[in-house]
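Holo prediction. Input below; ligand is iron/sulfur cluster.
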Amino acid sequence: MAQSADHVLDHLELFRGPEYQQMLADKKMFENPRDPAEVERIKQWTKTPEYREKNFAREALAVNPAKACQPLGAVFVSVGFEGTLPFVHGSQGCVAYYRSHLSRHFKEPSSCVSSSMTEDAAVFGGLNNMIDGLANSYNMYKPKMIAVSTTCMAEVIGDDLNAFIKTSKEKGSVPAEFDVPFAHTPAFVGSHVTGYDNALKGILEHFWNGKAGTAPKLERKPNEAINIIGGFDGNTVGNLREIKRILALMGIKHTILADNSEVFDTPTDGEFLMYDGGTTLEDTANAIHAKATISMQQWCTEKTLPFVSEHGQDVVSFNYPVGVSATDDLLVALSRISGKEIPEQLARERGRLVDAIADSSAHIHGKKFAIYGDPDLCYGLAAFLLELGAEPTHVLSTNGNKAWQEKMQALFAGSPFGQACQAYPGRDLWHMRSLLFTEPVDFLIGNTHGKYLERDTGTPLIRIGFPIFDRHHHHRFPVWGYQGGLNVLVKILDKIFDEIDKKTSVLGKTDYSFDIIR
Amino acid sequence: MSLATTQSIAEIRARNKELIEEVLKVYPEKTAKRRAKHLNVHQAGKSDCGVKSNIKSIPGVMTIRGCAYAGSKGVVWGPIKDMVHISHGPVGCGQYSWGSRRNYYVGTTGVDSFVTLQFTSDFQEKDIVFGGDKKLIKVLDEIQELFPLNNGITIQSECPIGLIGDDIEAVSRSKSKEYDGKTIVPVRCEGFRGVSQSLGHHIANDAVRDWIFDKLEPDGEPKFQPTPYDVAIIGDYNIGGDAWSSRILLEEMGLRVIAQWSGDGSLAELEATPKAKLNILHCYRSMNYISRHMEEKFGIPWCEYNFFGPSKIAESLRKIAGYFDDKIKEGAERVIEKYQPLVDAVIAKYRPRLEGKTVMLYVGGLRPRHVIGAYEDLGMEVVGTGYEFGHNDDYQRTAQHYVKDSTLIYDDVNGYEFERFVEKVQPDLVGSGIKEKYVFQKMGVPFRQMHSWDYSGPYHGYDGFAIFARDMDMAVNSPIWKKTKAPWKEAAKPKLLAAE
Ligand code: SF4
Ligand code: SF4
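Structure of the complex:
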């Protein structure tokens, strides 16, 4: 028996002891296991170009896709508004999943309710669930706003949110003037970034276009402010704070729409804040008067931005700006739109990032990377790698489309380091596995699920994206702006140096190259 | 804190009753009436906890429950390692449940084992409009081609499947025929069925019955020589290795474990189980159905056991041994004796740090009652408990064997109620799930996830008890809980924004 009270062994060590190893070996005979030689043969076969070809010929099956479903994005947006409770109409299991998923990434509470539809609602529709649900949520959680979206159950049976909310108000579930914006978010269309877009558009539509016919439409009286939309982002806490800091430095009046940087980073001080921070409802309505709206992620706002533009604002979109040039473009755009100068402090920050890159680029130059994630994240990271003289060889986005692919290829075409790079829209991480075996790269950038790829293919994983469950607190640091670029640079460098150390640390064999100065 | 030690039972009862009354005030009248039936203060001597259960959750209250799909794919089927489990429908459900449950296994993942892969048919609009059976056929073909060493496939239905009229049973039958009788199991665990995970367990159990047991050759050659000591572990999902730290004890007492359901389990083990002499059942809630079926159909007796904490472990080892001859009975005594020094050392080390500390639980399956003994072995007291998806038989077992007089009982508790209860009762520790963890930690209350063991474990068996004790100690006695208040700020009493 290896266990002891002095030195308690948990799963990390316990099962490696001889007793457990023997037990597991003995268990095999009951498992009807495959012949080990056959397992080895198939394992090797999955690494071949032949397997890759079959793998890429898949038309129906997804294996380890890197995308989630629409309502997750809707919940993510909704909590970015002051006192807002996300309400997802449909089966309750989905809501349990969104909450867990967000909590596991942010290590924060995630509040959201469901209308808990069951079999009878599948037959008769979910109107009663909406009526009761809104009344209960309103009384229990005292929200300032309830933002409604849908699971695929409600979508398949065709529940009409607009009519349901109206009826609920007539029945007194919530006061007539209480804000209940909504968006249909079918899980079988697009992904979580689509849900982000739909829900945000639903909220703006509600405030700007007369609250579903219950108030006069707002008339735009242009002012000097700029709206910022962050998009779905695992680093939302760090990134939105960084953007706010930059805007403050530039003296630009602004509204961050769907500002969830506080609610996903509340202090532990004895008080649970179910709602914290967020765009005020007043600011949300007034955002119609802004001079312009900037989306930090084009593919998270494909419907929202045109909607804003229809109201007469300038709109500009970026693709997850990481690094020097992307940040330059952002600042120049901000300056152009606002008429404000870019302050010296930001120029100095820029200089420091350039300085850091110059100091370290020898270690990154020419290295090959694979990247996967949401379309904008992929673009932003690939652009930064090109700037570092690295090659983003495989860039894969399960929820990327044809337009994304073209934009990626254009980016590659514009850089000498992008000539051998390829974008893969609509593919999943099992495709990536084939890519990594048949065309190996030095490093992989992706979310937590990339650790399976790291294990299988030996490609070291740098964790940037969503979700990241198995490393803590990185979402609190920005990756946008010059400061964010520095964070990404350091992350990449740390991994590179750790790998060199790992490869050179065999005593009596690789004593050379195990350097203390690099 | 530790109010329980300074108050009489009567005072606690009065406080808990008051607390329930207070909580119910927040609801519209109709909801208050419904929720009142799920909240109670336990009365010693009663045969159940006096709450209604397994009833639909109320819309909009922030229930903590999941769905039938979670009960089937997430709990029962997902851990079967050599089968491919398809999350059939849109991408979400499979994505959120991917790898999140830590049902440990050993195998060559992606080649002969598939637990931590996410297979989905990733429905698009056209599949909803025109039906998904064609896509399913293709999905099955592609799995066969790319994962040729899979020993079987299950189809885990997500919400849309049952709504668009797909015939996954027909597809399964015809594909199974095409692949020489390959095991393909359609599971109708759409998330809207039933009221929680619970129906998903039941549906998954029935699928084993209909699509595995009913297809067995009645006189098929056993793959191994049977012995009189063959048992199957039922209802242990090997979270953090729980089934392993249980199996080792059973084997040490002389039994032979021929199957694990379903943590680190395999199709062959499911198929071999009708040959067991005894089914031993840990999570009664999720696998009593198939145990009863095996009793009726194959005459295999089953017995419930509890491997949390030394008192219950010893009791359970003796209970299991009671089904066998003296050799096994002696084996049980030998095992209990062997681990006694470890138990003594663990209790000597941790009990003084935990004595008198109070705990509130809210979990699923068997844990709202099963872990109480382990806490008591450490001198701790469970002052509130409830089930996410329990039935009346769970509450009966809880009342008859586990909880003390005046324990607060809450069935299908929601965020609001749970926060209020904890705020008022002020336990030293809360044990619940990921959705609750950070809420209570913000309030300054130590917390352990009691579904996932907070990424620790195993907690079953003697080896697991040492880990359990260590973890509870590190939660309750973490120095950080003394620092939640800034020194220049007055000690504010915990409050909830939502409740203001
Ligand atoms: S895919 Fe559909 S059923 Fe699954 S979690 Fe998303 S909305 Fe829910
Ligand atoms: S108690 Fe455990 S085993 Fe039973 S259903 Fe829950 S998480 Fe599962």
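The first strand of chain B starts at residue 39 and ends at 41. That is the main takeaway for now.
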